[in-house]
Amino acid sequence: MFKPTPNPPDTDPANSKAFDKAADRILDHYLKPKPSKPEADPGQLFTVAHGVDTETLLANLSENLASANAMVNDLAFDLEGPRRHIALGILQLIELSGLLANRALDNVEARQPR
To answer: Looking at residue 42, what DSSP letter applies?
Structure first.
């Protein structure tokens, strides 16, 4: 069975290049969108939002240290020997850091008018 096919359309090489550029531009627009804001450093997993006041940062630091204190405290009393001494040393560093954070938080609160 013979099926007649139409002749392919004539292609102008100059028009073809313009068409290819337009097609690439359209595909790039949809398939490779440009980021609306600069991306963070790919080597940095966590970031702190810009514009957060010092009091909020210190309050969160204090809460994080309290959580770490509770976890290490629980762990230290399940251990024995040198491992327990290491855990208690870490616990002491967390306690001292918590005291420093709380004092800094007190200083920040004292400076702000209420």
So the answer is: T
Q: Are 104 and 58 in contact (CB under 8 A)?
A: yes
Residue from 50, 51, 48 nearest 61 by CA: 48
Q: Is the torsion defined by CA of 80, 85, 90, 94 positive or negative? A: positive
The answer to whether 105 touches 55, Cβ cutoff 8 Å, is yes
Give CA separation, 13 vs 9, 10, 16, 19, 98, in Å. Answer: 12, 10, 5, 10, 73
Q: How far is CA 59 from the centre of its chain?
A: 20
Q: Return the SS3 of 97.
A: helix
Structural contact between residues 59 and 109, judged by C-beta atoms closer than 8 angstroms: no
Place of tokens 């069975």: 1
Per-residue pLDDT tens over the stretch 55-98: 888 889 989 999 999 999 999 889 999 999 999 999 999 999 98
